[in-house]
Amino acid sequence: MGFWSKERLLRGVxxxxxxxxxxxxxSALCASWYLLCESGLAAFPLPAGELGAPxxxxxxxxxxxxxxxxxxxxxxxxxxxxxxxxxxxxxxxAAYIDQTLRILPDPLLALAxxxxxxxxxxxxxxxxxxAGVVQAGxxxxxxxxxxxxxxDAKLMGVxxxxxxxxxxxxxxxxxxAVAAGATTFQMIQYGSDPRRTIALGPWLVLGxxxxxxxLVWM
Length: 218
Known about the structure:
The chain is an all-alpha fold. The chain has one domain (17-217). It contains eight helices and no strands. It has helices at 6-10, 16-41, 57-71, 73-101, 106-123, 127-145, 150-190, 201-217. The model is unreliable at 43-62 and 64-71 (pLDDT under 50).
């Protein structure tokens, strides 16, 4: 079974049409949010220093300015938005599969990481490259001492590439907090049942998308 085979990508959970629908829906949501903020709901990009480096400065402003110096301001906005929507779309598919099978497919994480890496390289925002390595390393450290999965560790690397170290850690904290709340609620409802486990990946993806939307809104 090849790395890019349909079986490795979708794990028999989704059809190609269904996966495409999920990706397009999430991408459209992200694009709509960006355009809504751009039209006057809030200022974009995040002013330098608004939330402090690296959460603010390394995210929107440096990406856009770095790209603008290479390909022009209008093209920079389009490139940044397209890459961000692609990341969110691929992660949404991975989250759906993880929720069903408790596995994050490596090909989908690679597909999400590619535009995140492209964003960092084109914009010259190399801090995000380091953030991806640091967060992946942190995830593998968690994997050694907790039930944190290797797929979750790889997902953390993608989150760092996409959001930077500060944004990635905020997304991680949000995802873990919501997952802990969902686990607690489930235990209250059904008791301690090992058959009723909660996948962490979907919550990390949700935290990442919400963090991205918050940074765009700011």
